[in-house]
Amino acid sequence: MTHAYASSAGLTDPGLTRSQNEDGLLVEPPLYAVADGMGGHRAGEIASRDALVALFENAPRQADGNALGRAIRAANRAVIESAAKSRTRTGMGTTLTAAMVDGTRILVAHVGDSRAYLLHAGELTRITEDHSMVADLVRRGTITEEDARFHPQRSVITRALGSDPDMAADLFEVTATAGDRMLLATDGLTSMIPDDYIAEILAQERDPAEAAAKLIEAANRAGGYDNITVVIVDIDDTRASGLAPARGSRAAGRIKAARMLWVVAALALVLLTGWGTYSYAYSRAYLIAEGGYVSVYRGVPGTFAGVGLSWLERKTAIPVDRLTVPLQERLQAGIPFSKLSDATDRVTALQAESAAAASSTVSPSATSTPPPAP
Ligand code: MN
79 C-alpha vs ligand 1 centroid, how far in Å? Predict the structure, then answer.
């Protein structure tokens, strides 16, 4: 499809192994979005659809960041309310990656592991950060980008619409150049083929609809393990027709000021929400009883906004039953620390305690583990 200011195309495909397509897309210039729903009994399909409908209904007519943020929150509420309507929808959720394009200015709102990319001079840049467990591991340098594509837990996402009423989306603005190409895609594309290959197809195929078809074909050739959805938008410097023209210098000045405020607010939001939860979790640590021994984890015990945020650091050889009963009880739930070094200091202390306990309570029947020499 061709528009006066940009040419765009969207395409979705169930892939080769799934019987249903739980992805959804929106191509309503200047608004574009992809959503990847999850949940049993077709609930994923409902979640992505509800989110996109609510986004469309609540989206501003112009590329306004604050208003787009409000529309995302409305989409989140819509999925939560829809989930409450039926038992089969319990736990359903969806990713949502949306963009409003105004000439070369692109507002992006994003939750989950679908992605937005920008192709500039043949080079593809990912402009969203995945909210997923493997993305966190990549950011920490634990695994590579390539490992992430094949990781067994690659589909575990750490933020989605549909569970937390206070969920915060990443919101930011990108300035593109005329001639750039924006891609929105679900993980059915990005987990199947590497970014280099995506870049090659986007750079070679001029027609957006053809390029979309080729991307889907490539993902299916690579296995098509998931639903695949792509939206391609060719960026030019013509202002979006849906936008009201600014009249007079005062209006222009006001718009400029508002825009600058928005950029500042967006930067702050990205800092606070994009990495906030995760860097917070990573910076923390806890000890917990596991299989009768003390384990050290990074992160926070239990779940946070419905999602587990913890990573095993190491299992120790400290038997829980050699510790005091109150300590044993606390270890069942997990003892949190504000940083990993505090947790490891505690482990050192516990090692000494358990060794002391072993030497003081040693009895002839406990000969299998001789106590260390005093
Ligand atoms: Mn998917």
Answer: 17
Domain ranges of the chain: 2-234, 250-359
Task: Look up the CATH superfamily of 2-234.
Answer: PPM-type phosphatase domain (3.60.40.10)
Give the list of residues 6+ apart from residue 11 with CB closer than 8 angstroms, or none. 25, 209, 212, 213, 215, 216, 229, 230
The pTM of the full predicted model, rounded to 2 decimals, is 0.65
Mean pLDDT is lowest, of 40-49, 153-162, 354-363, for 354-363
Rounded Cα distance between 321 and 172, Å, is 51
Could you read off the pLDDT of 173-196 as tens digits, one per residue? 999 999 999 999 999 999 999 999
Measured CA to CA, the distance from residue 115 to residue 118 in angstroms comes to 10
Find, among 283, 299, 300, 293, the residue nearest to 350 by Cα. 293
- The letter for the amino acid at 272 is L
Q: In sequence order, what are the residues at sequence separation of 6 or more whose Cβ sits closer than 8 angstroms to the Cβ of residue 250? A: none
The residues whose Cβ lies within 5 A of ligand 1, an ion, are 36, 186-188, 226
